[in-house]
Design a protein that fits this description.
Elements: H1 3-35, H2 49-68, E1 93-95, E2 101-103, H3 106-114, H4 136-147
Antiparallel strand pairs: 1-2
Helix pairs in contact: 2-4, 3-4
The protein binds heme C (HEC).
Length: 154
């Protein structure tokens, strides 16, 4: 074969390969969305059992908080009342009046509800009464509710 013929053969085979690649990509793109048929555009989004359970736990926490009067001292809009706001509380670093710092994780929040005076937050008065007769379920729900106001990266 001449040099020109080789050149032509290479160009043709490259075009065929390119066309085949695009063909496969196009086919994949077309078949992709059809698998995700439960996208929000078509019917309600799929809610897993775990999501549902977490949501009802937060809802119960909101009810307990209202019933127990927590919101008289803790806001859910960022404003400071007698106690700190729950916005951004979960996962944050808390300075205690004895100079120590703690991470406001689940364990700390539970302890603070059951025995608030044990780890007093710096800059706040020791006015919260202990809620030491709550059930585990109530504590879980309150923690989940407080956690729902965490800033997104926590
Ligand atoms: C009379 C006002 C008052 C009530 C009612 C109250 N708290 Fe508090 N709470 C405070 C104050 C003040 C602090 C900070 C001082 C301390 O650490 O005890 C605090 C601290 C906390 C903390 C530790 C986090 C932090 O910011 O230091 C949590 C969690 C908490 N409260 C949850 C609750 C929950 C849940 C309820 C309802 C079951 C509740 N509080 C009811 C005043 C209150």
């Amino acid at each position: 074969m001449t040099r020109a013929a080789w050149g032509l053969a290479v160009v043709v085979s490259l075009s065929v390969a390119t066309a085949a690649t695009f063909g496969v990509a196009f086919w994949l793109l077309r078949s992709g969305p059809r698998q995700a048929s439960s996208s929000p555009m078509h019917g309600p989004p799929a809610v897993s059992e775990a999501d549902r359970a977490a949501r009802t736990l937060v809802d119960r926490g909101r009810n307990y908080s209202m019933y127990l009067g927590c919101n008289a001292c803790h806001s859910t809009d960022g404003s400071r009342m007698q106690g700190a706001s729950w916005v951004g509380l979960y996962g944050s670093t808390i300075r205690l009046s004895d100079g120590r710092t703690v991470i406001a994780d689940e364990a700390y929040i539970r302890r603070s509800i059951v025995d608030p005076g044990a780890e007093l937050r710096e800059g706040f008065a020791n006015v919260m009464l202990p809620y030491d007769e709550l059930t585990d379920e109530q504590l879980d729900a309150l923690v989940a509710y407080i956690r729902s106001f965490a800033t997104p990266d926590r």
